[in-house]
Amino acid sequence: MARTAKNAYHVPHAATWPMTGSVGLTMLFAGFAWHLNGAALGSELMAAGMVVIIVMIVGWFGAVVAESEGGVYKRWEDKSFRLGMAWFIFSEVMFFAAFFGALFYARSLSVPWLLGEGSGASTHEFLWSDYTELWPTNGPGDLGESDFHMGWWPLPFINTVILLTSGLTVTWAHHAIKQNHRQQFIAGLSLTVGLGFLFVFLQGVEYAEAYHAGLKLSSGVYGSTFFMLTGFHGLHVTLGAIMLSVMLARALRGHFTKKRHFAFEAAAWYWHFVDVVWLGLFLFVYIL
Amino acid sequence: MNAHATTAHHHGPAPGLLRWVTTTNHKDIGTLYLWFSLLMFFIGGSMALVVRAELFQPGLQIVDPHFFNQMTTMHALVMIFGVVMPAFVGLANWMVPIMIGAPDMALPRMNNWSFWILPFAFTMLIGTLFMEGGGPSAGWTLYPPLSLQGGNSLPFVIFAIHMMGASSIMGAINIIATIMNLRAPGMTYMRMPLFVWTWFITAYLLIAVMPVLAGAVTMLLTDKFFATSFFSAAGGGDPVMFQHIFWFFGHPEVYILILPAFGLVSEVIPTFSRKPLFGYDSMVYATASIAFLSFIVWAHHMFTVGMPLAGELFFMFTTMLIAVPTGVKVFNWVSTMWRGAMTFETPMLFALGFVVMFTIGGFSGLMLAMTPIDFQYHDTYFVVAHFHYVLVPGALFGIISGVYYWLPKWTGRHYNETLGKWHFWLSTFFVNLLFFPMHFVGLAGMPRRIPDYAVQFADFNAIATIGAFGFGFAQILLPVIVVMSILGRKKAPARVWEGAHGLEWTLSSPPPYHSFSPQPVVRSRII
To answer: Is residue A157 located within the same domain as residue A35?
Structure first.
């Protein structure tokens, strides 16, 4: 497959959005850091940075969508996008791996050691000899004074059903667009978006319940791992649902054909990724 | 004919400074990375000189201990994330598309962003030095609880690390997509130059571990500001947990800092030996093996911290296993030179220096790999000697070798060979003067990261400091030689070195702004 000037790879020029993104990112992070240090105007700078980043995302993706609809991208460019998205998702998997690693380490090593197992025997004996709680635990310091355990029933189970169903509906939408059934495509996509936001809403309800019962980020290592894992997952579900909403808006405008709809597929891949992460969470955070 | 594509390919650089801000051209971005890396090299180097000046004599001489700790911490962060990694990415940007016959990088806009995050991230990082409480001072590894007890710098450092991580991940994704999608017809995987191969594998390491670092520092942030207990025993967590997560990133990171240098040396040695690389296939498999092993050796950084015996043994054996593929590589480099018609231009000198001195660092690493021996060496200057041997005459010499090798290709002008040789010999003399005595003081028990020391270590420390200043000032030759080459008159031909093979030598020196349209057709490994 020799590539000649006829089907040259598209190299865009004069990119201004990346610099906008760098400025926004710096404002966001510097503002957040100042805010954490208790300095004035930190949160304002942070909010301004967020606005710049949103403008950048809209502008950058807008330009790419316009190029895509203008027929600039052929199969060759398409493959780059596919590789980019696939490896981006892999990097996200590794981000979650760090937090799952913390959960496994706490449950199978640090807490048993604090209980006197293995090489932690003297810590138990001399510092916290009356500590007996295995899991969930707020630690030998009884932090936050709550060891409320988030059960898997009913909300997390309902959320599992919702997310798995949304995985089915997004696949239905994918099959529909491949057969050029636009009505079904839009219906499947709408259902997925709806289920996605429903999941986020129910997760919020669950958080309110947990907070009510006294479970917080500050409730020892159980609270830390519970909120950080489900929190980052919820954030990713929200992002995925926003991506799918954009795809829905594009579908309603007549974008995508039965052959060319990678943006939708990328969002669907991302959706399956948050789905799989949730299954890990459901098993390791809620059930076991 | 697609009009858009055609105009795109006859498009020159934009005029003025805006060219560098908005560029999507892999050569421009490679150049930006390389200049950035050079600037950071002198900033990070100055910090090292502050450390060495303080250590010239026992007792507190020049800086207070808190500032000394900031210097050791920042020196490491700047050298790792600001010098070696950007230099490798810069070389990859310039050379990988050319070496595989690609029109550009696969995702050119993202390529721009990967670079342009860095100046902002480093402004934020280095800016912490001027804050209340100063910059980070708990070491680049940011171990809690110490790292959580500093001044205002912590969130800035953490966010700077997040930004550098985002930049690295985007850069790595781009390199993978370029190599997988944009190779010229006939450029099969097993025909790719070794530099491309080592970067391909390095890119996977980056995508796999930079997010883990992001997770680790995020947990530091929430432990400090949002009352989580990941690293607090009172809450059921464990400070040692941070070390495990950090070094799960940290050890592959060490190979991120060396694998592309392996690739560079594997390009340079065949050229100046006028022989094809010995054992190409085994080089590829050895690189992949080293990358795989890097994920299961991390706790050798933590032998003394407390671990079940089975853990100590497992990590000791896996670590020693790394010597096997690394030995294969050194064997192959030496065998490539065996009976070759060798000449010793500057790139070759730096590559040879790499092979010899990296191997010294490899051997001291093998000593450190043994758990009972590490119990004595841990946190002494022996460790400092070890990793500086693999990073300075290792990674850095690899980078400098690559820079001299391709400099005439980039500028279209020869560099001054005499000055280049001076650069090599001065660097090599002083780098050994600097780091070799550290083995001795380390074995004798001098601890690292402390601004004062017992008097019996005084002589070797004075020698090391002389070496440090000598090495530091010798490096001024590098930008001088580069600028002289840019402004020079002596034009370089397309194939700069008579023994050089590869697609980069089929293009003019300097290559056109947009190389390879249409793509070349590759028929064998040796071009």
So the answer is: no
Partners of B413 in beta bridges:
B491
Question: What domain range is A49 assigned to?
Answer: 12-72
CA atoms within 13 A of residue B435's CA, in its CB half-sphere:
26
Q: Are residues A39 and A125 in the same domain?
A: no
B97-113 pLDDT per residue, tens:
999 999 999 999 999 99
In a domain, residue A3? The reply is no
Q: Does residue B209 contact residue B248 with C-beta atoms inside 8 Å?
A: yes
In this complex, is the C-beta atom of A134 within 8 Å of any C-beta atom belonging to chain B?
no
Q: Tell me which residues of B are annotated as active site.
A: 75, 104, 140, 167-168, 251, 253, 255, 266, 300-301, 326, 329, 448
| Residues of chain B with confidence (pLDDT) below 70 | 1-11
State the pTM of this model.
Answer: 0.95
Among the partner residues B1, B103, B123, nearest to A9 by beta-carbon distance: B103
Three-state SS letters, A13-45: CCCCHHHHHHHHHHHHHHHHHHHHCCCCCHHHH
The answer to whether A119 faces chain B, any CB pair under 8 Å, is yes
Q: Which of residues 116-145 of B touch A (CB under 8 A)?
A: 116-117, 119-120, 123-124
| CA-based nearest distance A265→chain B, Å | 18
Residue A265 lies in a domain: yes
Q: Are residues A164 and A39 in the same domain?
A: no
Chain A residues near residue B2 by CB distance under 8 angstroms: 6-8
- Tell me, which fold does domain B22-506 have in CATH? Cytochrome C Oxidase; Chain A (1.20.210)
All residues at 6 or more sequence positions from A230 whose CB lies less than 8 Å from its CB, including other chains = A203, A281, A285
Tell me which of A22, A42, A72 is where a domain ends.
Answer: A72
A188 with A143, same domain: the answer is yes
Establish if A143 belongs to a structural domain.
Answer: yes
Q: How many residues does chain A have?
A: 288
pLDDT digits (tens, 9 = 90+) for B168-224: 999 999 999 999 999 999 999 999 999 999 999 999 999 999 999 999 999 999 999
Question: Across the A/B interface, how many CB contacts are shorter than 8 Å?
Answer: 266
Phi, psi of B380 (to 5 degrees): -110, 175
Rounded distance between C-alpha atoms, residue B285 and residue B287, angstroms: 5
What are the pLDDT digits (tens) for A144-186? 767 677 888 889 999 999 999 999 999 999 999 999 999 999 9
Domain residue spans in chain B? 22-506
Q: Which of A38, A57, A72 is the last residue of a domain?
A: A72
The answer to whether B5 contacts A60, with C-beta atoms less than 8 Å apart, is no
Residues A106 and A129 occupy one common structural domain: yes
